[in-house]
Design goal:
Elements (H helix, E strand, L loop, with lengths): L7 H8 L11 E2 L2 H10 L7 E5 L5 H8 L4 E6 L5 H10 L4 E5 L15 E6 L5 H9 L8 E9 H8 L9 H9 E9 L4 E2 L6 E8 L9 H13 L5 H4 L7 H7 L13 H13 L6
Parallel strand pairs: 2-3, 2-5, 3-4, 5-6
Antiparallel strand pairs: 1-8, 6-9, 7-9
Helix pairs in contact: 2-3, 8-11, 10-11
Length: 283
């Protein structure tokens, strides 16, 4: 055991915490696995940790046992509050629980840098939260690293390389500003109830500045247009961005007949820069 609290199955029975589909819940009950996820986040002893969707608190316990200075847990399901209160009692002054929707709560009012985010994200909000964390108004962001559980398919999209089917907007958005790798893969039976798919933990470390210069909004427009019609050649998929798109593609070192999944991040950034400075024809 990682602490003197009861096993998670007992906690779930005591508080009648059957996982709810409406909350995107799949509970991870093996405390050895939650401790491994906590360790994947690196040294937590000098950091505040943000956790989204702690549920009965398996990962919360792993984070506190791993020495996190403080854990801020945001939980939408009021049924979990009793179980989380018991953990807070066992780790005095180190766990703060806020009830509510993580999409509507600003955690910064409750955290002191350095800040790490570690979470077994509810499936229904995982990608949206990741996009928010990767697109703040200013970079570097408030967090040093994100250690997040996703459906394996989403995790593979985050770390995908050009030429693969998984490569797309998510890979480019994350890899432009961060280092991302899969650190743990979990089968469905590790969870209660077992989801239909495998899961994976991705560790994302923020870079001090983006890998290549580009305007964030323009890069997002280019990448969105390219992958919204990923089967089309880029000269067709991107024609709405600029009347001279073919010349701009060539200026960025991209063949106009190429398709989005063949284009590396560096080339997308070069195209975003070309579009930012290209004058629109008068007439």
């Amino acid at each position: 055991m990682i602490d003197n609290l009861p096993p998670l199955r007992e906690v779930i029975r005591a508080h009648d915490l059957r996982a709810k589909k409406s909350f995107g819940q799949n509970f991870l009950l093996d405390l050895n696995l939650t401790a491994r996820i906590a360790r994947a986040a690196g040294d937590l002893s000098g950091a505040d940790v943000l956790e989204i969707g702690p549920g009965p608190g398996g990962l919360t316990r792993g984070l506190l046992a791993s020495g996190a200075r403080k854990v801020l847990a945001i939980e939408k399901d009021a049924r979990c509050m009793g179980a989380l209160a018991e953990i807070a009692k066992a780790y005095p002054g180190r766990l703060q629980v806020i009830g509510g929707d993580a999409l509507q709560i600003d955690p910064l009012a409750h955290l002191t840098p350095p800040i790490k985010v570690v979470a077994n994200l509810p499936y229904n909000v995982g990608t949206e939260l990741l996009i928010r964390w990767m697109t703040p108004a200013q970079w570097p962001p408030y967090w040093q690293s994100l250690t997040l559980m996703f459906q394996r398919e989403v995790a593979e999209r985050i770390v995908a390389r050009p030429g693969s089917k998984a490569y797309g907007r998510l890979a480019l958005m994350v890899q432009w500003r961060a280092e991302a790798r899969i650190v743990l893969t979990l089968p469905p039976e590790a969870f209660t109830p077992a989801p239909k798919v495998s899961s994976a933990v991705v560790h994302i470390t923020a870079l001090d500045e983006p890998r290549y210069p580009a305007d964030a909004r323009m890069l997002e427009r280019v990448v969105a247009a390219a992958f919204n019609q990923r089967r089309k050649m880029l000269r067709a998929a991107l024609k709405g961005l600029h009347p001279q798109i073919e010349a701009l593609l060539q200026e960025a070192g991209i063949a106009p007949t190429a398709r989005a999944e063949e284009i590396a991040l560096e080339q997308f950034c070069a195209l975003a820069r070309a579009l930012t400075t290209a004058p629109l024809a008068q007439g």
